[in-house]
Amino acid sequence: MSANLEAKKQLVEEIKEKFSKAKTIAFVDYRGLTVAEDTALRKKFRAAGCDYKVYKNRLMLKALNELGIECPTNYFEGTTAVAVGYEDEVAPAKIVSDCIKETKKMSIKFGILNGVCVDAHNIEELAKLPSKEELIAKLLGTLNNTAASLCRVLSAPARGLAVALNAIATK
């Protein structure tokens, strides 16, 4: 077995490992990005706990087939980089979408959400969702508001009684 073939097999295993752990994967066409823009993009991905890497299309397609994820082969034409999100489902899509707005050079090809291949439109819609932290903050705000309202309602009779007794005492 040649060393090149063995290296490719190891690379396919690495890709399979990353893809199997991922919650969201965004495949993008990175044509036209400068080195500085690419470096800044990689920094954003690292800060969000995501991986951003360029693999050969054939190796990614082989890894996806071995994982049982069916994607059209025409998605793997041209230059392809992959953004893999492990913790936050929205982070890779949001970072890619922001980079596209800033540079006007990249484009989303397709993505994988929880093991299902989806088109670029679904990844763009995912990018519009608020982050996990924002959703948790909204939920806690709603719960806190409800609890405060309940406290006001429950304390109203006692407050009314105290006001009435105070009015009688001042007469």
How would you concisely characterize the structure shown here?
With 171 residues, this protein is α+β, with helices and mostly antiparallel strands. Helix content is 61%, strand content 16%. The chain has helices at residues 3-21, 35-47, 57-67, 91-103, 120-128, 132-170; strands at 24-29, 50-54, 81-85, 107-113, 116-119.
What features would you describe in this structure?
This protein is an alpha+beta fold. It folds into two domains: 3-129, 2-Layer Sandwich (Alpha-Beta Plaits); 130-171. Helices cover 61% and strands 16% of the residues. The chain has six helices and five strands. The termini are far apart. The mean pLDDT is 86.
Fill in the CATH topology of the largest domain.
Alpha-Beta Plaits
Global mean pLDDT: 86
- Using DSSP, what is the number of strands? 5
Supply the number of helical segments: 6
Shape: elongated
| Top CATH class of the largest domain | Alpha Beta
Radius of gyration: 26 Å
Question: How are the SSEs ordered, and which strands pair?
Answer:
Elements: H1 3-21, E1 24-29, H2 35-47, E2 50-54, H3 57-67, E3 81-85, H4 91-103, E4 107-113, E5 116-119, H5 120-128, H6 132-170
Antiparallel strand pairs: 1-3, 1-4, 2-3, 4-5
